Known about the structure:
This is Chromosome partitioning protein ParB. It is a single chain. It contains 14 helices and five strands. The protein is α/β, with parallel strands linked by helices. It has a five-stranded mixed β-sheet.
Amino acid sequence: MAKKVSAASRIDLGKAVENYRREGVDQIEIDQIVIIPGHNPRGYATGEAAFEGPAFEALTQSIRSFGDVFQPIVLRRKSASNLYELIAGERRWRAAKAAGLTHISALVRELNDDQIVRVAREENELREAVSSIDLLFASLDQLASRVGVPVRDLRGVLIRARDRGDQLDGEGPESQVKRWIDLLGLPSLATLVRSARLLDLTPDERQAMREGLSQQAALALLDLGDHPQRGELLEQTLAKGWNAQQLREQIVQLQGKETSAVQHLAKTVRQQLGSRQMGRLPAKKQKRAEQLLRQLEELLGSS
């Protein structure tokens, strides 16, 4: 078990504490700080993996060596208690705990629920270690919560808000979308419409985006729907370092081969549908063939 270390035992109190006080930075007990569930964009789509790995270990070691964080975290007081809610800096807070610190430098601010969303988002956008998909999923969830719809239904709301524009009345979630985008500092409506498709990514694809897979490549994979080779194409993309264009070329080749196979099968079936071949079938098989042909007719007619 790591030895508990106070930040005050490591830093130069003659200078650091004076500077901290001048800027309104306090030393807060780490055990008094609590997480607001679903608040932090970091790790929103990928979970605990956002707080693991070599970069996090390096941050922990740096904080252990220095005895404090280099940039204070942001807190607000939790009502009717002696606790503080973490607004920005969860990764630093976790690393400080892992480093064995008992206190951490923090800015304590009075912020409402809408303000803390914006603070967390803007603070995380300045840090390259925060994945774009975490920020995106947090944005979509926060927007869905504000307009009062399940996040799975949000893309439809966004599309209607985009398409109807000034024709929207004051009722319904669509009319609230633009106001909340501005208030929370979220990406543009057009960006959210395009990006909301990423909610359908598999866990492996979400993690791949966190590790560098581009949004364009992820959208290309989504175009495959539930294709059985979607997972294999993801593995090849990561292993071979394909960009979005290279991935799309592979998808076109795959679909082209499948189209050729379907066309060949259709030609074979047409040859076997002549009256002579059909007449040789037993009555039960003829009836079954008729049912299948009707289903095929409906399928092709609905495309």
